[in-house]
Design goal:
The protein has 343 residues and is mainly α.
């Protein structure tokens, strides 16, 4: 009897130990997945940034032309030719150090927060093994973009100022680099100055990321359904928008095509917010301090609309959408490839 009683007493202890081990295993698994998201997303983001950066430089220079002066560039090709004559090909990569760091932070945080948002929504809405429907994935993408925007704005501020040296002429004569610009922004505007243009970044990243992930998931699902891709592909959906699987085993060309469509969706839909942000972030630092009245997101948008109309808000959109296709294709393909290789 005593032996039986001792055995019964040990059962709760063993159950508690097993629960602790399960929690520990789940926790270590989450940490490992987070580390993979950060590492794989960083690599994918850096490669994508190298592909797109010259086009991004042209885009920012087109966007940031002063609205009260005659336009310096007639279009993307003219901007590229003038920039190439003035600075050479390497001039189109001016200021890339900050964007490389930004791309690593942006893409890794987007993939990480996208997965965490899915986990949170899954726990709140559905049984653990039931996949999220497409609208829920779009919401998760928007949440990931909103979080990322707060990390990205300071990096984009420095990037834009490096890309448009003509408006920082007095500083550029002295070889202005990222550290000098960071010091100047802090001296004139304080810590809050690094988040100048945050509303534009928030709108672009929230809406754009919802479109980015939503388009990628949708196009991958179409491949799964109609082209007959392997069953392990990205989230394929039934008629009620419920996913069948995940995208990592799509053929490479299908991953790249889905990524290209996603990149174009991300950039086109909320492009005016990015234009307003670029104008705000390329305004000369000393001029902002001397005026004493900062331009707001709405005031800049209103001025662009009054002087140039819708065309002004979409200035440089063509080259932006064009360069986003290969960049986004590489980002998704590299991320999925690394994820498969180390799974």
């Amino acid at each position: 009897m005593e032996a039986a009683q001792e055995a019964l007493d040990k059962v709760p202890e063993q159950s508690s130990q097993m629960e602790i081990m399960d929690v520990g295993t789940a926790s270590s698994s989450q940490v490992a997945e987070a580390a993979k998201d950060i590492a794989f997303g960083s690599v994918a983001g850096i490669v994508g940034k190298f592909v797109e950066y010259p086009f991004d430089t042209v885009k920012v220079r087109l966007q940031s032309q002063p609205e009260n002066l005659p336009l310096r560039y007639r279009g993307p090709l003219d901007c590229f030719q003038q920039s190439f004559r003035q600075d050479g090909f390497l001039g189109l990569y001016r200021g890339i150090s900050a964007p490389l760091a930004g791309a690593a932070i942006e893409i890794s945080s987007m993939f990480l927060s996208y997965r965490l948002a899915q986990n949170a929504l899954q726990a709140a809405m559905l049984p653990s093994k039931e996949p999220l429907p497409l609208p829920a994935l779009v919401v998760c993408g928007g949440a990931a973009g909103a979080f990322t925007s707060y990390l990205l704005t300071p990096i984009e501020l420095i990037k834009c100022k490096m890309q448009v040296p003509s408006q920082q002429s007095s500083m550029m004569k002295h070889g202005s680099g990222p550290l000098i610009l960071i010091t100047s922004v802090y001296r004139h505007e304080g810590l809050r100055g690094f988040w100048r243009g945050q509303l534009g970044t928030l709108i672009r990243e929230t809406g754009g990321s919802a479109a980015w992930f939503g388009s990628y998931e949708s196009i991958s699902a179409l491949f799964q359904r109609f082209v007959g891709s392997p069953s392990k592909s990205i989230n394929s959906f039934t008629d009620d928008n419920t996913p069948l699987a995940t995208p990592s085993s799509l053929p490479v060309y299908q991953q790249m095509l889905a990524g290209a469509v996603a990149g174009m969706s991300y950039n086109f839909l909320f492009y005016p917010a990015d234009t307003i942000k670029s104008v705000m972030q390329t305004e000369e630092i000393g001029l902002i301090a001397s005026i004493g009245q900062k331009k707001t997101f709405l005031s800049v948008g209103r001025a662009l609309w009054m002087q140039q109309g819708l065309k002004g808000l979409y200035r440089g959109c063509g080259i932006t959408v064009g360069r986003s296709a290969p960049s986004s294709a590489f980002i998704f393909t590299i991320y999925e490839g690394l994820k498969n290789a180390f799974s």
